[in-house]
Predict the 3D structure of the following.
Amino acid sequence: MKVAIFGTQFYERDYFNKYNIDNTHELTFFNEQLTAETAFLAKSFQAVCVFVTDKIDKNCIEKLAEIGVKLIDLRSAGFNNVDLEAAKNNNIKVVRVPAYSPQAVAEHAVAMILTLNRKTHKAYNQVRENNFSLQKLMGFNLFEKTVGVVGTGKIGRAFCNIMLGFGCKIIAYDIKENEGLKQKGVQYKTFDELLSQSDIISIHCPLTPKTNHIFDKKAFDKIKKGAMIINTSRGGIINSEDAIVALKKEQIGYLGLDVYENESNLFFKDLSQTIIQDDVFERLLSFNNVLITPHQAFYTQEAVTEIAKITIKNFTDFEKDLPLENEVIL
């Protein structure tokens, strides 16, 4: 099957070619992101493969349908960037990689917690300048702290298990409670209870119309003053402008972001010689208690391997008219 892979990152070609056994599929890599303006590049292809930064809206999907594309294969778990209704109306199947390595994302969330708490990034820079002072480097014990987990899917569960190992008290919020976590001592609470009781909040829910900006001024006003918030899920879950106000008021004590709601114009690019035009992002960067990483939580050898394997399998299942176990259904 001929597949157009959009928004190709530097590391992806080798992995996709490695697991495209015997060149079963004809893969063509494009650096361009898939949008309505670049959809014409998929002409003569049966399938497109996209990433979280691609914009597959109704206009884009209609153009894909016009040129004969029958499959959109997301090499990610999230699918909020695809207009599923438009895809259904245009008889285009949508598949994804539902779970590539929950541990990768969960471990990165923990790394952000430890970095913000113990200020290892600041200590590293100080020591390189022969500054061995301990001033402004004090952290706090994670032991017996209350950690709120929003979303207990595969990643959220992996995160809970790690934090239980630190001796934390884990409370969680999800529309579906997990019995396995409850047996381990995790307590499910209402969203408001989680906000008011947590010393640390880690976000692991998908971005949907219901979760879009679920962390806004109302939510920030309910958190413990000085609480830490970590988001390795989707940027749109946090209202960035409201977060800035809460940071200025010191309502948010620490903020760790691996995702940002307008990241498509920033992340996965080298903009080191560019003046960033996003004033909200620049304001977030200016806070000394904010840590931002470039959507790298998923980026481990194991995770990238699984993404390539499952993505290729999705192509094969579609081509052979097999059941699409990873289909996203509206």
